[in-house]
Q: What sequence folds into this?
């Protein structure tokens, strides 16, 4: 469904991503791991249009989406979350998700401003959707809390809820488990799995190896912008190149 | 909750009735003039705030107002158009221009956007200054006709050459403008505006076309600046390219900031206060900008949220005092 081919990004001389290839099939949960600074988040930014690739192609459902604007790509069904928690802090949890529901149904400016009956109906619909999503991610109890004053774990869940609200076909999660305690990690993993079971494809960046190995069907490993391995979690664990990338070579150790 | 709403509504109602009755108390031409200027500044500051909801500060308001004023004046004077049609065309023209340049300007953010809008405003003013054959250049326009009189069901006619009647016209336009801007802010479109100002990239990532919404906010804001310009031309009757230059734009920004850009009523309070109060100290004359700068600095230091933040500020002060008193009592007991 999502195909990335020969994706390359140069930051004035620095080769951040080098001829990266990856396919995420419909309803698949794929992991993307690698040491810090390997270029994982850059790949996310390239896929979702936040930065333009130097070279290469991203296609989604057969259509070329390389270099399109982020909101267009989100509209087509590729939605991302951010590594640093990014929320609308001055809005309540409910409003945050509501804004994310914003495009479904489509907003027409005049209709919304005049607040005619059809708009009222749409807003009722949105309200129901929001409550459903909050129920799904277990945030209904804090729906009127300001997003900025939530505990960290809740913030990350809200980030995922907002991504879900924009009805993704493929969800890109950028380190969803970072900074969580064990309890929160297991809850978040459960959530990610149930999102996947509902038929949404997921591409996951994660540093928590145990979680990544546990969740993903297939894992791609990158180091210094290059893909060095791809395969099932079991294969990845055995791969000498991966071990080297994470732990360094013998000479370096010495 | 409903009681609160009722109080709010009746408050607005009383304020509006009071504004309609004002000319019967203050029938001096000076006060009528001042109140008309208040009305125009209220529209300008409020529409500037609508642009500001997306997190962008436009400095094109003076330029857009100049454009609007000249468009209205020239349509009536050169083409003999009805003043009402001219005002409408002015609004639409300003909107379209803002829409076109908006798409170019929105590539820039923050201070860079402000700079480019300021330059655009200056370009408009320079263009009017140089285009002698059409605009009379630095000489300016004189004898601009006022708004056409309206006949009400053939019973009586409202003649806007009478300044009191022009006050009512301004009041009606102010009320309509505020209603439209309020509807904008409290619709889903307004929510999108504010989400963009909080986090541009997050809004974009969940599928909000941030450029589109910023351009809409900018164009709507400029629409009202254009209309206000047209209204000014009809009221004042004379116009020069420097009528609303850079300093005027800054004044509008000061109205908004001093009143408080966080709340809808903020720019309204700011514009009313800073139009009426400085006018009472005419002896300040050319030192007026100093006065504005001093007020701006005081507000920024002591009331970062503007005058609308004052009640909250007082409340926290009182709460703190209570807490301190409570602590002292506890300390004494110990």
A:
């Amino acid at each position: 469904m999502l195909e990335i081919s020969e994706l390359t990004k140069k930051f004035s001389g620095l080769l951040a991503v080098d001829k990266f290839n990856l396919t995420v099939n419909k309803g698949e949960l794929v992991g993307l791991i690698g040491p810090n600074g390997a270029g994982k988040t850059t790949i996310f930014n390239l896929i979702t249009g936040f930065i333009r690739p130097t070279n290469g192609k991203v296609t989604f459902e057969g259509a070329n989406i390389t270099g399109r604007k982020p909101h267009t790509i989100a509209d087509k069904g590729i939605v991302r979350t951010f590594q640093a928690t990014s929320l609308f802090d001055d809005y309540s949890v409910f409003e945050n998700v509501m804004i994310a529901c914003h495009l479904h149904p489509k907003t027409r400016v005049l209709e919304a401003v005049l607040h005619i009956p059809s708009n009222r109906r749409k807003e009722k619909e949105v309200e129901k959707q929001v409550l459903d999503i909050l129920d799904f991610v277990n945030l209904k109890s804090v729906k009127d809390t300001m997003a900025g004053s939530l505990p960290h774990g809740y913030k990350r869940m809200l980030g995922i809820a907002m991504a879900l609200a924009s009805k993704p076909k493929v969800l890109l999660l950028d380190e969803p488990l970072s900074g969580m305690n064990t309890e929160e990690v297991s809850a978040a993993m459960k959530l990610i799995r149930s999102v996947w079971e509902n038929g949404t494809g997921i591409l996951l960046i994660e540093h928590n190896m145990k979680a990544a190995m546990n969740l993903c069907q297939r894992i791609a490993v990158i180091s210094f912008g290059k893909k060095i391995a791809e395969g099932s979690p079991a294969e990845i664990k055995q791969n000498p190149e991966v071990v080297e990338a994470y732990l360094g070579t013998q000479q370096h150790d010495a | 909750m409903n009681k609160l709403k009722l109080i709010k509504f009746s408050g607005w109602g009383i304020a509006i009735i009071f504004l309609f009755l004002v000319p019967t108390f203050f029938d001096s031409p000076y006060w009528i003039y001042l109140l008309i200027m208040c009305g125009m500044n209220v529209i300008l500051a409020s529409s500037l705030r609508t642009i500001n909801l997306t997190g962008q500060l436009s400095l094109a308001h003076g330029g857009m107002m100049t454009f609007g004023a000249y468009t209205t004046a020239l349509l009536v004077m050169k083409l003999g158009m009805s003043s009402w049609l001219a005002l409408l065309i002015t609004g639409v023209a300003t909107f379209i221009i803002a829409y076109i340049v908006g798409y170019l300007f929105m590539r820039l953010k923050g201070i860079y956007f402000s700079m480019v809008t300021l330059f655009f405003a200056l370009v408009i003013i320079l263009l009017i200054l140089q285009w002698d054959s059409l605009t009379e250049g630095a000489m300016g326009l004189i004898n601009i006709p006022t708004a056409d009189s309206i006949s009400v069901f053939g019973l009586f006619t409202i003649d806007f050459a009478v300044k009191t009647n022009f006050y009512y016209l301004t009041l009606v336009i102010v009320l309509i403008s505020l209603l439209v801007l309020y509807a904008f802010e409290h619709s889903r479109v307004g929510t999108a505006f504010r989400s963009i100002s909080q986090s541009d990239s997050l809004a974009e990532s969940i599928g909000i076309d941030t450029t589109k919404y910023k351009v809409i906010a900018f164009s709507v804001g400029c629409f009202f600046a254009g209309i206000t310009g047209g209204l000014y031309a009809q009221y004042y009757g004379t116009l020069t390219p420097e009528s609303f230059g850079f300093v005027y734009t800054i004044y509008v920004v000061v109205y908004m900031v001093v009143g408080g850009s966080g709340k809808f009523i903020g720019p309204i309070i700011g514009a009313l206060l800073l139009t009426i109060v400085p006018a009472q100290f005419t002896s300040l004359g050319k030192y007026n900008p100093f006065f504005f700068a001093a007020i701006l600095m005081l507000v920024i230091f002591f009331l970062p949220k503007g005058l609308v933040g004052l009640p909250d500020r007082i409340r926290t002060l009182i709460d703190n005092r209570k807490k301190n008193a409570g602590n002292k009592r506890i300390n004494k007991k110990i």
